[in-house]
Amino acid sequence: MNLLRYSILSQLESAKVIAVIRGGSAKEAIELSRAAIEGGIRAIELTYTTPQVEKVFDALAQEDVLLGAGSVLDTETARHAILAGAKFIVSPSYMKEISPLCNRYSIPYLPGCTTLREMVKSLEGGSDIIKLFPANNIDPSFIKSINGPLPNVRVMPTGGINLNNMSDWLTAGAVAVGIGSDLNKAYASGGFAAAVELSRKYMEKVR
């Protein structure tokens, strides 16, 4: 495996918690990202549903955090994200056209999958970690079921992850978890300080 790709994957697995940032504006996304970083989160997925998301990449470029791009639906967006500084690319479902582009630049591609068929296609496309999405109505034991026929599948559940069930997912074999709605709710109700505190709680639970 390419050393750059291996390094990025290792950082994702070490981070354990990936903050999925969906801001109503670039300013909000920057503040929410900085709250997550201050709380100890070391990997952030900046979604392309955020207006002017390139400004968020620029603002966070010097932060000690692994930046990735989410809600990537096509190769044009994937390339834009990579040029903006994204070190991993995430899609809500498997987009076969994105895999070769990411492989070309040694950037991990994490497509959203819920079925074995999608997971097999993702593996064939070169994905090392699969985003189990949405994970809201899936039991953590699903990972063991997946790893029966597909023992080399590594999973990052996203959607419905919270402080109460995060440990269940990690114990069940998830390499990391993606959190988003929790952070947005904390920020909406208590601002920057509340988002920092929630991020700290997630990282304390990981430790």
UniProtKB/TrEMBL annotation:
Keywords: Carbohydrate metabolism, Lyase
UniProt organism field: Planococcus antarcticus DSM 14505
The protein's name in its UniProt record: Bifunctional 2-keto-4-hydroxyglutarate aldolase/2-keto-3-deoxy-6-phosphogluconate aldolase
Gene3D superfamilies, A to Z: Aldolase class I
UniProt pathway annotation: Carbohydrate acid metabolism
Family the entry assigns: Belongs to the KHG/KDPG aldolase family.
Keyword Calcium in record: no
Assembly behavior: Homotrimer.
Organism phylogeny: Bacteria, Bacillati, Bacillota, Bacilli, Bacillales
InterPro entries: Aldlse_KDPG_KHG, Aldolase_TIM
